[in-house]
Amino acid sequence: MTAFDALMAYQRETSALAQVAGRLGWDQETMMPRGAAGQRGLEMAAMESILHARRSAPQVGEWLETAAANDPADAAQIREIRRAFERANKVPADLAKRIAQVTSEAQGKWAAARAAEDVAAFLPVLDEVVALKREEGAALAKGGDLYDAMLDDYEPGTTGAQIAAMFDAMRPRLVALRAAVLERPKAEGVSGRFDEAAQMMLSRDLAQTFGYDLNRGRVDKAVHPFSSGSGSDVRITTRTSPTDPFNCIYSTIHEVGHAAYEQGIDPAYALTPLGQGVSMGVHESQSRIYENQIGRSRAFAGWLFGRMNAVFGDIGIADADAFYAAVNSVENGYIRTEADEVQYNLHIMLRFDLERSLMSGDLQVPDLEAAWNDRFAADFGYAVDRPSNGCLQDVHWSVGLFGYFPTYSLGNVYAGCLNQALRAAVPDLDAQLAEGDTSGATGWLRENLQRHGGLYAPREVIKRASGMEPSEAPLLGYLETKFSDIYSL
């Protein structure tokens, strides 16, 4: 057995254990008894301890010194294993274990505080999470920028300064479009009550419409929709509201975008570093293009209007044009996951600035709620009404995902580039979507992006698929054209 063969055999075992650890997280969000939170924290800490030891093992370094690549895929495997090895050896094992335990417990405390609208109940454990993540960031940065070190976990090769510059370029046009749209009459929404079982049935049907293989996945409910897993076990969750079926529908389509990426990766890469999405920004490009450029397109919305009438009967919307306006309605709101395409990135910019300040120490955890509320009022023009609509709405900080939020907007930017290329490559796409056939779009994405998994660096895979360097220009042009048409600007 060559050094490369031994390295890959070892890595596949490590990846398999990481999948088991991920399943613990899925269970915690969907089925775990509430009283099991403390024990689950210990279980996840134990798994993290094992994984950290394997990733940082001296034997891995010895194999990396002599492993020879036979082709570009082998070279990419070595690159990614070395990256994980170097990272693991920067972070002390005790710290990695402590972070896993505290964030598991913090997740439950966040959920309880959110339900009780009690920020004070959550802040002590968040303070602990922030302190631990600062310590981790310092270990990773080795004298560099803490936030950049965290961002590199989710979007390798990207810095906070680059994200800030991108946001500075996007903000004026988004603010201007938002102001123009909100001056126009509001689109009418659905009316009535929508049976939960019927929503979940439609959710599963739509998942399959977008190519999700239920033989290798499942759809469940959670407070915060998410996708987890890779290869032959990729699971998604959604949520329901008796008065807002769009929440369930578009949460499902969004998470299917993530899941389809994982299911579409070349099976030869299974349980290796290349057998998963290359970055969270690229991952988010798939969920956003599925949800928005495909799922909220005029053509697909027309088909979905008929499908919803078949499932629910009269939904209070007169025709397909009114339905298209409804699923693209722009209106004031608090919740990031429910935000329209025009305002979504403004929600991300708020979080990006706050979490950078938390990591730098310019903002302290006890001051977070006031800082959030002040920034929200300044950006959106109205006050946060309760904590679950403010700083308690997202799970990310409770589980230590600092550096994650900006990848949502990167995903939107990447999706804009991909959509432009997709439209050029599949000229009859709208005719297909009007029949509820997404295969032209999803097939193009699978062939040009998804199958590569982690083979290429994030910006490289977007450039290869779209034929251009990633830029915010296609996204901004798409948004201005689409919403100027809907709102007759």
From TrEMBL:
Its EC number is 3.4.17.19. The keyword Hydrolase applies. The keyword Protease applies. Signal peptide: none annotated. Pfam families: Peptidase_M32. GO terms for molecular function: carboxypeptidase activity. Keywords: Carboxypeptidase, Hydrolase, Metal-binding, Metalloprotease, Protease. It catalyses: Release of a C-terminal amino acid with broad specificity, except for -Pro. Belongs to the peptidase M32 family. Broad specificity carboxypetidase that releases amino acids sequentially from the C-terminus, including neutral, aromatic, polar and basic residues. This is Metal-dependent carboxypeptidase. It comes from Sedimentitalea todarodis.
